[in-house]
Amino acid sequence: QNISTFVAGNDTSYQGCRTRKLFSVSKTIPAPIYIYYRLTKYHQNYRQYQKSRSDDQYSGTSVSVSDVTSDCDPFREPGSLHGIGNNLADGKAYNTYAYNPCGVIAWSAFNDTFNLYKVPSGTTTNSTAAIPSGATTICMGGAFDSNGDSTTTHKCVKKGIALDVDVDHRYKAPATGSSQWTGVGEGTDPYRSQGWYAGEPGHKIPVTNDQDFMVWSRTAALPDFSKLYRIINTDL
Which tens digits make up the pLDDT trace of 175-217? Predict the structure, then answer.
């Protein structure tokens, strides 16, 4: 429990937990191997959920807070959800910025991470170490930046999980600047500078050209769904 620490000004937040699952592969699985996550009883098909977005923002357009659709409430501007809209960030009230991307689709973006290791025979789930002793890393799902580039050496990729039409046309890097509050991180405010939702330490705002976000924002028609997470490029 509390495996991550997030600091925002004078506030420190401890969050997160780690779960381990041991399984055996009885025969060779040839690459590429696709890793999916699955959610059940999650209604992305709810009409108000699907409307809570800005396609202009997704395409890289700068949209001022006054022009952001009200369908994005209460994730239209920083501070609205927690009643801190009058707090100042870089000399301006939180509520004069626009969340980019706005809406509940972005706010609820799936942010669990999955790591896959080959471990020695006899390994148990009792260890509290981040990486099991003697393990060989196959995939560290969180070790990628928003452009899909790996930040470590392993045997999986993030680029290629989203549809080509989304990567090439529909989703672009977020507009930044003095009116925007994005996951890129700008300014000196402890939340805005780290790309977090206001008042929510560690809750990262999705970056619109991140393929994880593209996959998530392709809303599912049914409440039991799977979404592509990573692609392993070696045989198992």
Answer: 999 999 999 999 999 999 999 999 999 999 999 999 999 999 9
Q: Which stretch of DSSP H or E encloses residue 212?
A: helix 211-217
Say how far apart CA 62 and CA 162 lie, in whole Å.
Answer: 23
Any residues with CB less than 8 A from the CB of 94 and at least 6 apart, and which?
A: 77, 78, 79, 84, 85, 86, 87, 88, 181, 198
Specify the residue for token string 């025979």: 121
**CA 183/CA 33 separation, integer angstroms:** 30
Chain segment 78-114, per-residue pLDDT in tens: 999 999 999 999 999 999 999 999 999 999 999 999 9
88-89 and 136-140 beta bridge pairing? unpaired
**For the stretch 174-205, what's the b/e string if a residue is b when 16 or more beta carbons lie within 10 angstroms of its beta carbon?**
bbeeebbbbbbbbeebbbbebbbbbbbbbbbb
Give me 194's structure tokens.
């780290």
pTM assigned to the model: 0.93
Are β-strands 156-157 and 225-232 bridged in parallel, bridged antiparallel, or unpaired? antiparallel
C-alpha distances out from residue 79 to 111, 113, 177, 179, 200, Å: 21, 27, 18, 14, 10
- 8 A C-beta contact, residue 53 and residue 103: yes
